[in-house]
Amino acid sequence: MTKTSAVFPQPVPGVKPTPRVYTEEQKAMIEELRQYALSLLLPETDPYHPNERRWIEEPECPARYMRAAKWKLDDGKRRIKGTIEWRREYKPDLISAEHVKIENDSGKILLNGFDYDGRPIITMRVGRQNTQPSERQILHLIFCLERAIDYMPEGQDSMLILVDYKSATLKSNPSISTALKVLHILQDHYVERLGRAIVTNLPLLLNFFFKGIGPFLDPVTREKMKFNPNLHELIPDDHLEVEFGGKFDYEFDPDSYWEQICRHSGVNADGSRYMPEWTRAQMLQQEQEESLKPVDSETSSTAPDLVADDDDVESSRAPSVQLPRASKPVSVKGGSSGKDGVEVIGEEEPNVLVASA
After folding, report:
1. Which residue among 38, 83, 181, 326 is least enclosed by CB atoms within 10 Å?
2. CA 29, CA 334: separation in Å to the nearest integer?
3. How many angstroms separate the CA atoms of 110 and 108, rounded?
4. Could you give the CA distance from residue 180 to residue 66 in angstroms, rounded to a whole number?
5. Average pLDDT estimate for 283-309
6. 255: left (phi > 0), else alpha (psi -120 to 50), else beta?
C-alpha cells in the first residue's frame, strides 16, 4: 500500500445510491411543503435570497422535513420554518473557510471516503483536539457538514459519521454543553442528513459522558448509532483507512487536505461559491478518469490538480493554501431537539454520538 494525501471526492466506481420512492400522496405533501417554504423566501433584493432559494429547491429538501415529521404537514412546516430562520441568522453555507481552517490543522474532523451506499464519510478523532472550546469549533463542524453535502452524489442525501475515541482523554472530549449544541444543530437543522453513526474505541472512562447527554438524543437518531460494527461491511476497503483495517493508507497533510476539500466543493476562502454544480460534476468526472490511469509511486501521493476551464467559472478561483482575508465570521447557536430517520446496522449500545467539534 502506498501512502497518499489525496482526498476521495466521489464514491468508488459502480456505487449508485438507490433513489427514494414516494407515493402520490407523499409527493403532493412534499410539493405543498416546498410551496410553503418558497412563500417564506427573502425578497430578491436581499443578498441571501439566492442561497435561500438554492437550499429550498434542492430536490430532497422538503422531503427530508416531511420524513422527519412522520408525514404530518403542520409539523413539517414548523420544522422547515425553524431551519429557514436559523440559516438566515447564521448562514451556514457562507462560513469562512479561512476562519475555521485552524480547527482542521490536527485532522480532528476529516471528510474523506464514501460508504457502499455512496454516503460521504466524516471521521471525527476526539483525541486530536487542538483548540479551546469556542463557537469557532461549532462553525468548523458545520463547515464540514456543508462540504459533506456538497460531496453527496446524485440520489444520496445523507452522510456517515465515524467517531473514533482512540487516544481520547477527558481533556480532549467535548463538554456536555458543546455536545448539546452539536446535537441540536444536527437534529433540528440537518434533518435526515445522518444516515449512519459509528463509534469506535470508546474507553470506559467516557461512559459517563454518553449517559449525561443520552436523554437529549432523539430516540430515532439513537437507533442509527452503532458501536464497533464490522466496518468492512459498510465501507469499501479502498476507502477505509488502514488504522480501521482497510487499504486506504491516508497521510494527513493539513494544507493539502484543506485545498482539496475547498476545491472539490467549489468554495472560496470567504465561503462564497466560485463553481456551479454542473461544472463541479464535470471536474469530478475528469478526476475519476484520471484516477483510473496508471500512475507511478512518485505521483500517486497527491490528488490531480484539476479545476474548471476559465469559460466555465467566474474570475474568482478556488482557495489556495495561502487563503486571503475573509469577511467577519458568523456565530452559531443551538436549537430545540428534533427527529431523524433510521438505519439499524451493527452491534447496539446505548446513548449518543457526539464528538469534539
Report:
1. 38
2. 28
3. 7
4. 24
5. 53
6. alpha
